[in-house]
Design a protein that fits this description.
The protein is α/β, with parallel strands linked by helices. Helix content is 25%, strand content 22%. The mean pLDDT is 95.
Length: 322
């Protein structure tokens, strides 16, 4: 029996654990993968848009070689937080469902159950890519996570999407010698792409260095080619890899299995109080980016750092008057 179960071992889950520990609560983090699993799956050479100062949690300085830290530096930072606070976290522990009995929540992983009075959902969204639902998407050449460019040197690469991730991937692959084509559902690139990336991307398309098909979707992915639906009709192009930078969304199946209601708004925002962060289930709170639903640009690590303290203070208040 714990006081608090935290679902998700990313930056937000870690922050919640640190605050719970400082307040004297018995807690456990249940993480389906490795420590900060989402960041682990970021591109190998990624640099954060945020500064290290804005990413700090637990009152612990985040020291990086430059103003904006790299993925590698972030992984080391969170590993040190794990060790310094001796956090109670169980890895490779995927939550399947949740029920309630005698005023406590029973969290089930399929192999084990955990019991607590309070639950904090901090699952993020990066672990759940938006699938294209086209024939051939299961082929090994199709990737929803970009790892590193070395795989794609002198390969024919189709990048799907027109937002930040797609533009970053397309430019890096082209710079390292890949033959890059983009399939973009909209009529233009997303105009809020990072200001130093967008002009570069537009110029590469204009000069023909990177081929771009706008208002285009994928019809089928084959082992050596891809069929596209374009405004000019159906075309088939040679292809070695498909990098589907189609975005990510909360794991709504899991939220449903936990009993969390989903709003009727266009962003399918999980129901929760904006002040206390409590969901429709009493004593179950939502922390971090998962609270934004499909509006994945609403929350980031830096603007949800206060969630942990807010939730733990709310639990302290309830326990003090219980």
């Amino acid at each position: 029996m714990h006081d608090i179960i935290i679902i998700g071992g990313g930056p937000t889950g870690i922050n919640c654990a640190i605050e719970a520990q400082k307040a004297g609560f018995d807690y456990v983090i249940l993480e389906k993968g490795v420590l900060v699993n989402s960041i682990f799956n970021f591109p190998a050479n990624m640099t954060f848009f945020s500064t290290s100062l804005k990413l700090e949690i637990g009152g612990t300085p985040f020291i990086s070689h430059s103003d904006k830290p790299t993925r590698r530096e972030a992984l080391e930072y969170y590993r040190r937080l794990l060790e310094n606070f001796d956090l109670n976290i169980e890895f490779d522990t995927e939550v399947k469902s949740m029920s309630k009995s005698d005023g406590c929540y029973i969290v089930n992983t399929g192999e084990k159950t955990y019991k607590a009075k309070y639950v904090i959902i901090a699952t993020g969204f990066y672990d759940h890519p938006n699938m294209m639902h086209v024939p051939g998407e299961e082929l090994p050449k199709v990737k929803h996570y970009y790892d590193e460019v070395h795989h794609y040197i002198r390969k024919k690469v189709l990048v799907v999407g027109g937002a930040n991730s797609a533009c970053d991937v397309a430019l890096e692959c082209w710079q390292k010698g890949a033959d890059v084509t983009m399939a973009i559902r909209g009529s233009e690139l997303y105009q809020r792409v990072k200001y130093w990336i967008l002009p570069n991307m537009e110029n590469r398309i204009k000069e023909g260095s990177i081929k771009a098909h706008f208002s285009t979707t994928i019809k089928e992915i084959k082992p050596k080619s891809v069929i596209l639906n374009t405004p000019e009709g159906e075309i088939e192009i040679e292809n070695d890899f498909v990098l589907a930078m189609t975005g990510y969304s909360p794991n709504y199946d899991l939220l449903s299995n936990l009993g969390i209601e989903i709003g009727m708004d266009k962003f399918r925002t999980p129901v929760h109080d904006e002040t206390t962060l409590e969901t429709n289930l009493p004593g179950v709170f939502m922390a971090g980016v998962v609270g934004g639903g499909l509006k994945t640009n609403r929350y980031f690590i830096e603007n949800t750092r206060h969630h942990a303290e807010r939730i733990v203070r709310e639990i302290e208040l309830r326990e003090s008057i219980a």
